[in-house]
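Hey forum,

I'm writing up a methods section and want to include a predicted complex as supplementary material. The small molecule is zinc ion. I've pasted the protein sequence and the SMILES. Can someone with a working setup run it? I'll credit the forum in the acknowledgements.
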Amino acid sequence: MARLDPHSYTESSQPLAKHVALTLYFDFAARTIHGSALLTLPAAYTGPLLLDTRSLLIHSVLDPHTTAPIPFSLPSDPTPDPVLGQPLSLSLSAQSAALVVFSTSPTSSALQWLSPAQTASKAHPFVYTQCQSIHARSLFPSQDTPAARIVFSARLNLPHPLTAVMAAARAAAPRDPVPGEVGFACPDALWCAPGRSVEEFIMNRPIPPYLFAFAAGDIAARDVGLRTRVHAEGGAAVLDAAAREFAGAEEMIRAGEALFGPYEWGRFDLLVLPPSFPYGGMENPMMVFLTPTVIKGDASGAQVVAHELAHSWTGNLITNKTNEHFWLNEGFTTYAERRIVEVVQGEEIAALNMGIGWRGLNDEMERFKDNMEFTKLKPNLEGIDPDEIYSQVPYEKGFQFLWRIERQVGRPTFDEFLKKYIAKFKFQSIDTEAFLEFLKANLPGIENQIDLKQWVEGTGIPPDAMEPVSLIYSKIVSLSNEFKLGKIPKEQEVANWSGQEWELYIENLPKSVEPSQIAALDAHYRLSESRDYEVKVAFLQLAISSGCKEYFGEVERTLKQVGRMKYLRPLYTALVQGSAEETKMSARRIFAEARDTYHPIAQGVVESILAKHS
Ligand SMILES: [Zn+2]
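Reply by user p_vandermeer:
Happy to help. Structure tokens for the complex are below, copy them as they are.
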């Protein structure tokens, strides 16, 4: 017996389910889903089958053909493993399918349930999923490892007038429930009660479980391109802004296809979520999930969209086998994102993004200075919660590695290599070794030109990594350096700056400066009030670490407005690292007051930041 993945109970000796049919009844009042999952194996199998679960109530397991019970067990110790959850063990005898009947719980970490008051419309409740990294198991029992790709169908039962969207194709128009179709998920009387409707979806391309995604609520939609529709909760105003911001999506898809080969997923829709969404974007196939903070009014949110789109090739088509190889998803995607940005926004903007990434990578070296394992491209994550060590390392060190190879072999050769790599491994889950083998086979001699072992297994930033070179980038860095001498940039120097320039400028300033200098900079450029959260948060982080008390009110407002972890992490960290006890206390108070508005994944991350500094 050997586990396939340090983050899953899935056993390598057991068969992997190929298809899952889900039936889900949504109870918004109880913040619970009553469901059944019909798992189909490639062939009849006799023996134990381990599935991952967390925060699930398992009611029964049945043979779908005979409805005879299938014996199952959960560990006798009811305390779940803090990272993995609990294994559900089925005992199959010459069976090729099992129907697991279960309920989620209000603490299921994949789900955020929002009350009407927590939505933009204020009129209806809302629920959405976030399954990466290992949260699918809190939604349905599964072999929750990216090594196990599945196709699925899903039947959702919702109260009027709510509608659902899924990272999947719609199989039929919403309709009334039909008696007998519920498949044990809940009593027929509940399924067919007045005021309920059923929506059906299908995903017929094999995906890793972390890409399973849906949202349900008062969701409206608008077409913005041939293959792209924007969906949003929050009414016409949000939809208008989103449609404007993402008008360039089709151009990006075409740029991606020219670089990496055909777009294999049919549609590329976008869902703008409420502000509590914990990430910038999530690359759910056919429908990317986005934070509303990417809508900045100047199309600069395009970079996040480019990133999620790039995942259509790197991450969703070729997937890391386990989270220890996460760089295969994110390093490649960061590289691909910047290539797309270069085509649609130009070389200078791409270089700015690289510069922001370079700064971020250097900051992570500081964060992990006592735990350099997590600065490796391929770290050992046994017993480690992937959410807790989530960092820029797989993104930016991975990007640097691929950029280094590009510089060695030249762009045309590397582009050809990338296309070949994608064509070879599409719809597969692979590890770093498979990549290296393919690299050495297709770019012969590369191992004599680049120290591949140091890049993949070494800690820190390799000496042949490179800071980007561009006119704007160098100018900004030199202006940041002048700030240390007491100089604030002149108006004509920043006249053409958008959010990214400001972000880079602030991030290159020293981590702590004279409070009077902070105030002077803000008096001039109103960075604390920027509509661009990247700028605002970078500024507020600097203000807290410099001890500027007058910005604490704005910090609190920001922490209560958005739940994106990219902002929560630095702001809470800066607060708890503050020298004054009062600052630390305010972090705890703000979290206590804002906790309910955060997604469970974000709640866990902030809790661990606070615990580390208690
Ligand atoms: Zn990504």
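Some notes you might quote in the supplement: The first strand starts at residue 19 and ends at 27. The CA atoms of residues 331 and 592 lie 35 Å apart.
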